[in-house]
Structure formats: structure tokens, C-alpha cells
Design a protein that fits this description.
single chain; 174 residues; alpha+beta
Length: 174
Amino acid sequence: MEGTTTPSSAASDPRIMGCDSTQHASAFGAANQAGSFHITSGCSLGSFLDNAGKEHIRVIEQPLPDGLCGAWHEASRTIFLHDGLNQRQRRCTLCHELIHARHHDLGCGTRYGAKCERRCRRETALALISPVDYGMAETVYEGNTWMMAVELGVTIQVLNDYRQLLYDSGVCVQ
């Protein structure tokens, strides 16, 4: 199958502290607006399913191999979601696979697969996490990864991808 998503896993050190929320908002607010597939942080699973329908993309929930949450199959314009996902996992995975679909990604096994996956993970994090909501969650939960992910309605993997973006941009220090 084409582009894939794996279950959430913690990065080497999931805590990135010392964020300047003003700098953070300006750095990523524009990126959220400029993306080819803009999704507001309040999008529900239902709105993602509506987006898929408008794009003539089938979404099928079924058992998938261990470690696989979802997959995009370009030739059949189908997103496969693991039928055992919770709501947060389903929302994040569907968003991730819709972004693969928007870019017409051919899969992780292709020559450009790793690059496509990095781009998709970055865009998923930017689409699902608002800079303001992230800043508030960081403050309230003092960097607690699990609590922040729950509050933001995302998986730990998506939260860590967002944190990596902050780190890479120089907005936050580890």
C-alpha cells in the first residue's frame, strides 16, 4: 500500500521547553495558512470524512497489519484506516492520509517516499495544532506530552512532530 502512518511513539526527548508563544504564533501561523491543505484545529472526524467525499476518496476501515494505522492507495483513491483506532488516532491518521492524497503521493516504497512522509507529517502537525492552543497547553500542562496531546486532540506522534518543527525553526530550545 502507498503512504503509511505508524502508531504514536515518543521521540527521544518529547519535551521542548522555553517557547516564545509570540514568535511561535508568527512562525507557524503563516505556515498553517499557506499550506495546500488547510485544516483548522477544530476539524472533526466528520469534517475530514466530508473532505474525503468531496475529493472522491473512499475511506475504508478494516484490520491492517500490526504497526499500521492507515495507508493511502493512489491508484484506487482509497484511504485505509485500521479499524482499532481511537478517535484521536483516527482523526490524525485520516488527516495524514488526506494530505498524502492531496499531494498524489505514490508511497513510502518509492524513490521519494521518505521525503513525502516527512512533508506529510510536518503538514499534519501544522494542520491539526494551532499555535495558540499549543502555547496554552504547554503552559497549563508544563510540557507533559500525554496531557498536551489529549488536550489538543492529537496523538503523541503528531505533537512530537509539531515540537520538532518548533525546534528546527529555532522558536523553542530543548
